[in-house]
Design goal:
single chain, 244 residues, mainly alpha, Four Helix Bundle (Hemerythrin (Met), subunit A), 2 domains, two-stranded antiparallel sheet, elongated
């Protein structure tokens, strides 16, 4: 047998633990059986017997699935499938101080993409009361911003209200996780200030677009409102490319 044939015969050694294997197998079975939230799964003793492993392995595997939000224990029902709360799962790991710079920037960019892209949902679901609340938020803000960072309190209140207006609970929860990371990027100086000076859309101007404009106009206005962020990101990218 030559070396090439030998390479074909060799396979990677499976170094995953029993717990890893049981966890993945359980997920595969959940998907194959098309289990839905509320459906029960066998008890620990049954799973151990069926899968040929100890109850300790089964228990640790189930604990992992509970941490992931895929299952939960219910009185008189045992362990059942549940719909995971994505914000809770992300909240356990989206901690700005322990994320590396690349991940922080990815999160920063993700929030920008979400806010530019949610105009249609906001327009479809906005109410007069929503507009009134936005007007109250922006009443004490400056008319416009020239290449400056918006006050963090204004940002939290105004953009938080916009996320709420989408009517998407997951999106609203998600922004509560993103905003701390967004601010942390600035606090640690990850984004450098741009030398360019432009007039950006203010919160007040965005409210006017919500009252009198179209989804497309609002989307463009939001893009211009966030222009200082985009300029800083793209400027950083250009500088890194020049150094490479």
């Amino acid at each position: 047998m030559d070396k090439q044939d030998l390479r074909l015969e060799l396979k990677a050694i499976d170094t995953s633990s029993l717990v890893d294997k049981v966890e993945m197998r359980l997920i595969e079975v959940f998907l194959y059986k098309e289990l839905k939230p509320g459906d029960s799964i066998p008890k620990e003793t049954e799973l151990a017997s069926i899968m040929g492993v100890s109850r300790t392995v089964i228990r640790e595997s189930l604990n992992r699935l509970k941490t992931m939000g895929l299952i939960e224990s219910k009185k008189h029902k045992g362990t059942i499938i549940k719909s995971p709360d994505l914000s809770v799962i992300l909240g356990k790991s989206l901690i700005p101080r322990i994320l590396d710079n690349k991940t922080l920037m990815d999160v920063f960019e993700m929030r920008l993409a979400l806010e530019v892209g949610m105009a249609d949902f906001i327009f479809a679901r906005k109410t007069d009361r929503d507009i009134q609340e936005l007007e109250e938020i922006v009443e004490i803000e400056p008319d416009h911003s020239d290449n400056i960072l918006f006050d963090v309190d204004h940002e939290l209140k105004f953009h938080g209200k916009l996320y709420q207006m989408t009517g998407n609970n997951t999106l609203e929860d998600f922004q509560n996780l993103l905003l701390p990371a967004f601010q942390y990027v600035y606090n640690i100086g990850l984004l450098k200030s741009s030398n360019q000076r432009k007039r950006y859309k203010s919160h007040k101007e965005l409210v006017t677009l919500l009252k009198k404009g179209t989804p497309d106009e609002f989307r463009e206005g939001m893009r211009r409102h966030l222009e200082n962020h985009f300029v800083r990101i793209l400027s950083n990218n250009d500088n890194q490319a020049a150094k490479a």
